[in-house]
Each structure stands twice: as C-alpha cells, then as structure tokens.
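User: Now give one protein:

AI:
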Amino acid sequence: MNDALKIQERLKEIAAELSQIADQDGEMTAEQETQCEALLTEEAQLTAQLETLRKDAQKQEMRAKADEIRSYAKGATRVTSSGTPGLRIGRQRLAIEDDPKRGFKNFAHFAARVFDSGQNVRGDEMLMQIAAGTGMTQIVNSEGGVLVPPAFSKTIWDRVLVKSNSLLTYCDQVPVDQGVESVTIPAINEVSRVDGSRLGGIRGLWKSELTQMTETRPAFREIKFTPHELYVFAYISDKLLRNSPGTASMVLEKGAADEIAFKIGDAIIEGDGLGKPMGILTAPSTISVAKETGQPAASILPANIRKMMSRVHVNFRDNLKWFVNPDVIPVIEGMEFPVGVGGVPAYLPPGGYSDAPYSRLYGRDVVPIEYCSTVGTVGDIILANFSAYGAAIKGIADASYSIHLKFDFAQTAYRIIFEMDGQPWMNSAITPFKGTNTTSAFVTLATRS
C-alpha cells in the first residue's frame, strides 16, 4: 500500500472515532475533548500530507508528458509502425540536424548543389535533409525553391549589422518576435523641461507647514513599430554558378548584405515612414539650425557648428557623432575657431591631431556616410545620437533559392527578405527649463543656397 492509500485509510479511522465520540449521550468529558483535539490535529496534518503527495504526482505526470512530447518533436525522419492500431509514431533525429551548415562547406558549395540537382531536388539527399531538418516543407514554393541552411542565412544578417556604413549598429534595437505583426512600447510624453512639464507632468513643490500637497503625475504615449519587408530579388546565371561558385557566393551573400544595409541606412536618414522607417530628416523631433546671415552657398562655418552643438539635448551628449556626406570633408578641413589673434582647429583628421578611424569635429567623431545630402542642402551634416532612434528588427534575414522560376532561361533566382521599422524615440523637440531654443538628439543645418 502506497503512502496516499495509507493516509486515506487513517483519515477514515479518524472520522469513525470522531463520530463515535459525538454519538455518546451527555456532555463530553475532559478526556474526550483532549482526544477530539488530538484527532483533529492529526486529521489536519494528514490532509496536508495528502495534498503534497497529490501535487508531486501531478508534477511527475507533467514531466513525463513533456519528455514524451520532446521525444516526438526531435529528429527529422519519421519512423512509422507496421500498421498496428493505436501504436504511436516516433521520430529519430539525424546527426546532420545538429550542424547549422547542414553538411555544406560554405554557401558556394550549397549553391552548386542546388544547381546540380536540376529539377530533381528530391534526388539530392543533402538538399532533402535541409528541408526536413528545419521542419519546413521539402520545397519553399511552387517553383521548387530550396531553403538556405540556417548558418548561411544568419551570416547574411550578420553582415548587414557589421557593415561599416550600416546605421543599425548605432540604433537602439528592438527585437520583434516572429508571428507578431507589430509591437507597441509605452514612452514618457515629455515635450518640455519647464516646471509642470517634466516627464509629461511630474512636478516637485516646496511644502509649507500645514498646507495640502498638490498631486501631479507623468504623462505617457505609445510608440508603435510595424516591421516592413525589405527584399533583394536577383537572377544569377547558371553558367556563373557552374564555373565560379565562389563568385556566386560573393554575389549572393555580400551583394545582398550591401544592398539591404544601404536601403536601411537611407531610410533611417530620410525615410518618409510610409511602408518604411521614419527617417530623422522627416521626424518632428529633429531640429534644423538656420544659416548665418549672408552665408555663402554650400559652405559650413564655425558658427554653424557651435549653434548645432548648443541645440543638442543635455541627456544625449554622450555617444554624439557627426554624420556627413563625404563631400563635406574638404569644406570643413582647415576650419578653425578663433581664439584671440589666432585659432584652434575645429576639424582634426585621423592620424593627424586625432585618433583613427574617424576625424573629429568639436571633439566628436565625424562619420562619412552616403545617405547624407549633398553639400549645401539640409542633411549634408547631421549631429546625432542614434541611441535615441528605435529600430525594430524582426528575426534574421529570410533567404531562399529557386532554380525553377527561370529554368528555361538557365537562370537561378535568389531572394532575401528582411523586416524592420524605425523612428526616433522623441516625438518632438524639447523646450528647455530655461531659455527659448529647443533641443533634441538630432540636429541638422538648414539649406545654404
């Protein structure tokens, strides 16, 4: 007899003894009261023990069920019964499933195998193991595409992140789970630092004796990110795949990563927010500093630089950088801030007065990027702290390969899709506690024409 049955039997005995005492005529004696108290105490203890045993049994049952489900979820090859009714179908795991490259040496090796398979993808065991090992169907679409092995797909995504001109590395990245259409994040609705406006309405007040305190509270708003699809779709000749698989690997991986990084960077700078991220040049929180009176066209003056620095919010001065069109570099070379009868350099090139890899202007790194406007146009020089820009990223790059879409043209189709959205965390420039000039994490210089 197990412990639970023993406890149940004893509880029955306690109930019988209590009934026997209660059925006796007359008042209970002191001895009977003591006996009842002892029985009730024992009953409470046994009931608690029985509940503990019940919970432990439930946990064991749940663990066993989880192990059973886990065993069926593993593996890539189904092993069925020989038609025995009621017999469950188990699964065996292939060793290749633990290899993120699915047995391929590199992406070029994979591309060559896809080409060599012709229309008979099912006849290539390695390609079949990719589809089965990832839990996907044996073909990506009706044209017979083959899923790119996970290791190579992630490599493409990593290259997007580490590209030297990729602005994603500077942004505040927000992960979005697969299967989620959008993500909404609460934020403080602060547009001013004057009393009664900080944190949207919090205010500290000095209290006099015996006076009632005034209630204040912060204000919130919602920031919604809806990742948009960015894709690269290209045809590669089968002759190139056949004769130069290494070149094909470079074209498919590096070319796709370069283009995706470029489009993301361009959207972060000047995207209109319609089906793509909102860029800082179109965001309402960005400040544009006016040009100086009589300032020549396509010029940048020390006064412009000083005023741009003064418009940066005090909370965003760390990690602040200048992002410029490469054509801006010759314009600011030799720029000096006047000091007495002489001057001090405003712009210090790398390897000269400053450290590599970037030049420095007003003590901040100067990063040349293609996405900035031409010299003299708003956006040619931007002072920014991109930690104030939220970039919502959904998973990694989804890469796939098809040999059938253009089979009659001897071409292979390659497609990569990447999903993201972005916008500045601030919804407006901030009015300072004292003074009239608004501040922000993003400052530009107005057009000089």
The longest helix spans residues 30-73. The mean pLDDT is 76. The CA atoms of residues 11 and 43 lie 6 Å apart. The longest strand covers residues 389-402.
